[in-house]
Design goal:
By secondary structure, this protein is of the alpha+beta class. It has eleven helices and five strands. Helix 1 packs across helix 6 and helix 9 packs across helix 11. It binds zinc ion.
Length: 232
């Protein structure tokens, strides 16, 4: 029997983890936004939202949207597709949607969109202030009804969400000032190489994924390799 569309979507998403070579820990890879945009086309998002497998149908009821499963009804889960894709990348919820696909709860995106949340106001904000979000807050803010219905599954989703969110929101490298990142952030780097050890820390060379490199540089700069100073 063919797998439901939501599961197929999750399997396809897993193939986008970057870097693609096997040496990297799967949990430390990231999902480049540019690849998410290519993979989650309007048709792909429509078909995932329209999945009516037993799981997705249950999830619709967990967020009080069972009526969307009624083929005779006027509203459809796919009514939310445009809002996932957004008018421009600043207001899209494509990374949040991908995270929910990864967690196995794609339909929960509706719960966020109904209240005008997007990538910037959810995972990008949570990843910046990683100490300020915990599983209980997430459940209480975004799916309180689900927590009442099934506290075990709700808690499991919250832990998976927080555990994986950094993979969907690496920081964009911009500005000339120094920056400090939390220890759990997943950076858009690859091909890291230890260049040397000094008194105060280690120096690494690395490459930055093109989608996250917005450091203002002169015309002669070749973005082949930058250095990272990691303090002891
Ligand atoms: Zn499904």
């Amino acid at each position: 029997m063919a797998e439901p569309v939501c599961t197929q979507g999750r399997d396809q998403l897993a193939r986008l983890a970057f870097p693609r070579i096997g040496a990297y820990d799967l949990n430390l890879r990231f999902y480049p936004r540019s690849d998410l945009k290519c993979a989650f086309t309007k048709d792909a998002v429509n078909s995932i939202l329209s999945c009516l497998c037993a799981r997705c149908t249950n999830h619709l009821s967990y967020i009080g949207q069972s009526h969307l499963a009624d083929p005779a009804g006027r509203e459809r889960p796919s009514d939310f597709t445009e809002r996932i894709l957004g008018r421009n990348s600043a207001h899209s919820a494509i990374a949040l949607f991908a995270l929910l696909v990864h967690c196995g709860y794609p339909i929960f995106i509706i719960r966020f969109l109904e209240r005008d949340y997007d990538d910037v106001t959810t995972i990008e904000s949570y990843c910046r202030q990683e100490r300020n979000i915990n599983a209980r807050d997430l459940e209480a803010t975004h799916w309180p009804e689900f927590r009442i219905r099934d506290s075990f599954l709700s808690g499991q989703l919250a832990v998976t969400f927080i555990g994986a969110m950094h993979q969907f929101a690496p920081p964009v490298m911009e500005g000339r000032d120094h920056a400090v990142y939390g220890s759990r952030r997943i950076m858009p780097f690859f091909a890291e190489e230890l260049l040397g050890r000094g008194t105060f820390g280690d120096v690494y060379g690395f490459k930055i994924h093109h989608g996250y490199l917005r450091i203002p540089v002169g015309p002669c700069f070749k973005p082949s390799r930058l250095c990272l100073h990691s303090l002891h």
